[in-house]
Automatic annotation (TrEMBL):
Pfam families in UniProt: HTH_1, LysR_substrate
Residue ranges the record marks as coiled coil: none
PANTHER family in alphabetical order: HTH-TYPE TRANSCRIPTIONAL REGULATOR LEUO-RELATED, LYSR FAMILY TRANSCRIPTIONAL REGULATOR
Name of the protein in its database record: Transcriptional regulator, LysR family
Length: 317
């Protein structure tokens, strides 16, 4: 049997229709009154609550009176020198305390509030596979309340400027004054082919390398433009048979053909666990490398927890 209007749809539509009413109700409630309520409840007295909130007992009493006009209950009953909460007040406390606790966790700027915090780190898939396991172990061992979220890098500068990510780890330099960075590591470039490739023969001269077809990893950015220029000078007659933005695809293709390709050594080490790949000794590229760096928006450094996470990441590398 099918429902024309499933329960979840009815619930969702009801929540949407009730949203304006919720805002109207909240607009008519001074949320500071809830802070007063919690102080009186926890410290069991108007005088004690006034001291904690740096207010006068009269101001606290007036706030309680306002709360009594909102809720259908006296909330607190005088008992000796203090007050005791009603059953209704105890019920309210369970929800109000949770709400204030969540707000404090969201607004925490000291980095010391022991509540869950999500940190978003942008990487490419390959860089993420290389760095995120070590980052996860380092951050979680120091700050177990931090949740890590890994997203794709689409436009590193825009993502940082618009605070869509807390951090970006990439080989592409984000070169604006608004961004800071830390170099995590420098990775040497290697020439890679499948195991048993003819170019692995010890007698293969450098000029003979032009007879093979190559893959090309398409990279953007000024730093990569310089690297592409130097590689072109090393391989001026290189025949490009396949190009891709995805280094995983390139590695898989190299493993199943006679194509050759250049990639960072750490990437090769990762892919060699999955496919029969081997480094081909080619001294001409021995000095070539790529930098993998961590980037952040300098304005975000006001967040002490982010500073702590950056320090934890840098210590790993």
């Amino acid at each position: 049997m099918e429902y024309k209007d499933p329960p979840e749809n009815r619930i969702g539509s009801r929540l949407e229709s009730d949203t304006p009413q919720i805002f109207r109700m909240l607009r008519n409630i001074d949320l500071n009154l809830l802070t007063v309520f919690e102080a009186v409840y926890v410290h069991k007295g108007i005088v004690n609550a006034a001291k904690i909130l740096n207010l006068t007992p009269s101001a606290i009493s007036q706030s309680i009176q306002k709360l009594r006009t909102i809720f259908p209950d006296p909330l607190f009953i005088r008992k000796g020198q203090g007050v005791t909460p009603t059953a209704y007040a105890t019920h309210l406390h369970e929800y109000i305390s949770q709400g204030l606790d969540s707000i404090l966790g969201a607004l925490d700027l000291s980095g010391g509030y022991d509540k869950q915090r999500t940190m978003t780190i942008g990487t490419s898939p390959t860089v993420g596979a290389l760095v995120m396991p070590a980052i996860y172990q380092s951050v979680k061992s120091r700050f177990p309340q931090v949740l890590l979220r890994n997203v794709a890098v689409t436009d590193a500068s825009a993502q940082l400027n618009q605070f869509q990510t807390d951090l970006v780890i990439d080989t592409h330099a984000v070169g604006t004054r608004a961004h800071g960075h830390h170099l995590l590591y420098r990775d040497s470039m290697v020439l890679v082919g499948r195991q048993g490739h003819p170019a692995l023969a010890a007698c293969t001269p450098p000029e003979a390398m032009t007879q093979y077809e190559y893959t090309l990893l398409m990279l953007e950015g000024a730093a990569h433009a310089e690297l592409r220029k130097r590689i072109y000078e090393i391989f001026p007659e290189r025949q490009i048979s396949f190009s891709s933005y995805n280094l995983v695809t390139i590695a898989a293709l190299i493993a199943g053909s006679d194509l050759l390709g250049l990639m960072p050594f750490r990437c090769f080490s990762l892919f060699a666990r999955c496919w029969p790949l081997q480094v081909i000794d080619f001294p001409a590229i021995a000095d070539e490398s790529v930098d993998v760096a961590l980037y952040y928006n300098k304005m975000s450094l006001r967040d002490e927890m982010l500073q702590n996470v950056i320090a934890a990441i840098c210590q790993v590398f």
